[in-house]
Amino acid sequence: MHILPGATVLDARFEQTGFSAWHADSLPLEGVISLSDRLLWENPLAVRTNGPGVLATVSVRGAGPSRTPVFWNGLNLQSPQNGTFDASLLPLWPGDRLELRYGGQSAASSSGAMGGAILVEPACPADDGFSGSLGGAAGSFGRRDAQGELGYSNAIFSSEIRAGWQQADNDFPFTNTARIGSPRVKQANNRLEKFDFQQFNRLIINEKDVLKTAVWHQRAFREIPPAMTEKPSETWQRDRTTRAVVTWDHSPGSHWLWQTRAAFVDEAIHFRYAGDTDSSRALTASATSEFSSSAGPHLMWKAGAAITRQWASADGYSDSNRWFDQTRVAGFAMAEWKWTGGAVTALFRQETVNGKAVPFTWSLGGQTTGGKAGALRFHLSRNFNIPTFNDRFWRAYGKEFLKPEKGYSADAGWLFKQKYLSAELSVYQLVVDDWILWQPDSNGIFKPENLRKVRSRGLESALHWHMATGAWRWKISGRYQFVYATNIAVYDGLTLVLHRQLLYTPNHNAGIVLRMEKGRFSGAYLHQWTGKQFTTTDNSAYLPAFSVGNLLLRYSFQLRRKESEPAVSGWNIALDMRVENIWNTPYQVIAYRPMPGRNWRVGFVIGW
To answer: What is the extent of the structural domain holding 272?
Structure first.
């Protein structure tokens, strides 16, 4: 083994000062789970899903899916065509880090990060030598899962390959209250098949240079089930995506870090409806380079530039044979001042799209260290969101010269932590002007316009308590969120929507998580409550409130040749079981799109 000399590496992400964040705790899971399912269990934001495995989007603080980006390995997964990301397609493996950052972050993350951002960082092998696992699972409604990973790590080089496959019929029964007599029926046209392949490398070239690569290839086929008011039809969507990221970290000294990242994304969608198949494809190439340094014990700063080139083509665009394109160039700078009692961070960003400047953005955050009375924090920011390719170039309906959305956000919070108890309380306000909305004109044709000014305000609270009783360890977490997101100005004369809650944005939601652990056994019960959600812009119709409980159990043991002999070195078997919607609650997240009742999944993983 070759031991490299030690070096001090700067944290290039010091811009997170001052804003609220939710970090997903470890749960008794061994199998791969989608991001949408993981977020639905604890509901720290609004997840809008049509059903298991089908299109699911996320929205923070009422900002909407196009203003809530998802980052994987530092790469923004938002589609340049529709501005959203399907959270049901992102697999989370055991050990992956999941974080939700609340509040506007356009100065740090560019376009779209107006309500918050979701970050997923894949786990890498930590132990020296080879490691790996194989697993499988079966569950309700024809569900079958398989997964495998293989990794190698030493002091200089680490590498990991992992692949997952999932198939499900999703033909769950439900009561169709939209039909006369409310018959009991099975969900139709809802089959799912998905395959993921991910590969990661990390090479320590010397004490100054580290090279990292990540590749993610995915193929998915999903039938689109009919709404409760529709007849079954042959409707499906086929997704194919390849993403690649290369990162080079260069530390010329103990107080400097130069990080350069290049990425390429190729994504295609084929959608079949009413006998026709429409295709779309988007390409993204990007490069970012930033230099960080510390000037003494109190000041850190960073400056950099980024360029992104995007192309898109779709059967629905004004010219289906043309590749539409755009170039985005950005310059940014950040500084953080630390002292014994806290820190303050400032960020600035100026970006251009095809040579035209978008709104100048900035961010200011501060926080104090925790004392007996707890810690305080604040975060202010100006944000923006550029129109998508669909907004600008859809045949006959797109508006090429739509204005970027722009706005401000403000946060303030209090954090308290003792040995067994911690608490957090946050209040916030978010304003978005020139909100882009597709709505029908006088002829009933949907077109995009800068039509609204939206204001969202509310509070978020969390309480955590943990203890040990004998061999048992317990942790209880509770949270409550209030969101009041309304239109405060309209530019289309539809005053009926003024001061009405936004669609599918519940005023209230709450949840509780009970975790328990004893030796090789661990379990968790998760219960979340979602308040009523309005389904019309004038708030005349709504989905009723609902609550859902999920039970997770896990047991692991080491492989032994004989009961009297010691365990086989390095081999471990884990069994896990999930019972979702354990109380068999009938509910809908989207109107006339039923969710499954009680269902189960049993799986195993053999690791070494």
So the answer is: 14-143+152-607
